[in-house]
Structures are given as C-alpha cells and as structure tokens.
Design a protein that fits this description.
Blueprint lengths: L2 H6 L9 H15 L6 E7 L3 E3 L3 E2 L4 E3 L12 E4 L2 E4 L3 E13 L6 E10 L6 E10 L6 E12 L6 E8 L6 E3 L10 E8 L3
Antiparallel strand pairs: 1-4, 1-13, 2-12, 3-11, 5-6, 7-10, 7-12, 7-13, 8-9, 8-11
C-alpha cells in the first residue's frame, strides 16, 4: 500500500509494532477455536454375525481399538445397535464391511442400509445398497455406504445399520474384526453445526 494511503488511514510510521500483530493473531486464533471437525468416532463388529430376513445389527458392537486409530470426542454412543448423539450437528456417517451370502440353491438379493429416525420411533432408509448373489458364485463382496445426517435434536435423531431381504435370502454373514485389522466399521464424523 502506498505511504500516502497508509497516512490517510491515520497510520503513521512506527505506530504498528509486533505486539499489535501478535495480539491480532491471538484474537484470530480464539475466533477460530471450535471451527472444523470436532468429533470422529469409529465402531466395529467384534464377533461375526450371521442372520437372515430384515433387521439391524444389535450386538457385538464396540469402539474401534486398533492401534492406528485415534478418535476425537465421545458424543456418539450406542445401545443394542441404536446410535445416539449428545451434540447436535451435521454428521458424515459411513459403513464399510465385507459380507458373505449363505446361498444354498437359488439366487439371493438383499439390501444394506443406514437407517435414521427423526422422531425416535420411525426409521427410514437414509441410504440403501442392493446386492445380488447368484447361486454358488459371487458369494462375497465388500460394501460401502455413506450419508449425511442433520442431528438437530439429540433426543429424537438416531441411527441404525440395517439389512433387508429383497427376495427371501438364505442368510448373510457380517465379518468381525481380525486380529490386526477391522473388517466392519461404522464411522461418525461431525462436520459442523446444525443450521
């Protein structure tokens, strides 16, 4: 900025010192605290689960304890497969898992979904993936689902991880954690405040 312009703003030579700059930086830092991702949590399946029909995973869920993982915060909790929140916000929710269809003699088609409720009662599909497994071939697959959920009421908004039978599948197996890596992960990342 030209010197004449600086002088027209009432700034004279030598009136801005390092202390002023440092104070401004401190104010900016204070304003930015709390901005950005404030919560990351990962849950895993500890024991493999085989099921059929429709429902949601209700047991053998634990916090991720792999040495390479380190979460932030603890505002997501679960009880019998129903995940609750102690803070409002927009959340990115992902579900990654390998599956095995126990097909015996016919084609099977099933669905996997992240289920949400906004009234603590009626669950709907926030996202669903359909998979077809034909006879004795292509029995295994790796599946990834993700969705955004606006948790604007911590009493009413909850999440479940579900599965459904489209044409009456024989069964599905969800693989649990291995000794050195996780195979079924349910992840929650709080992206920011609800509007």
């Amino acid at each position: 900025m030209p010197l004449t312009k600086i002088q027209s703003l009432g700034i004279t030579d030598g009136t801005i010192v390092n202390a002023d700059i440092n104070a401004s930086a401190a104010i900016t830092s204070t304003k930015l605290s709390g901005v950005g991702i404030t919560n990351i949590q990962s849950f895993v399946l500890t024991t493999s689960l085989t099921t059929s029909g429709s429902g949601y995973i209700q047991s053998n869920i634990s916090a991720n304890d792999q040495s390479s993982y380190s979460g932030i915060g603890s505002i997501v909790s679960q009880s019998s497969g129903t995940f609750s929140f102690s803070a409002t916000g927009y959340y990115l929710i992902t579900w990654n898992f390998p599956t095995y269809f126990t097909v015996s003699a016919s084609q099977d088609t099933g669905s996997f979904e992240i289920l949400t409720t906004t009234d603590n009662s009626t669950y709907t599909k926030a996202i669903t993936v359909l998979k077809n497994y034909d006879y004795i071939e292509n029995l295994e697959d790796a599946i990834h689902l993700e969705c955004l959920v606006n948790v604007n009421n911590i009493s009413n908004v909850k999440v479940r991880f579900g599965y459904g039978a489209v044409n009456g599948w024989d069964g599905i197996q969800f693989y649990a954690s291995a000794s050195d890596y996780e195979r079924c992960q349910m992840n929650f990342i709080r992206l920011g405040d609800s509007v």
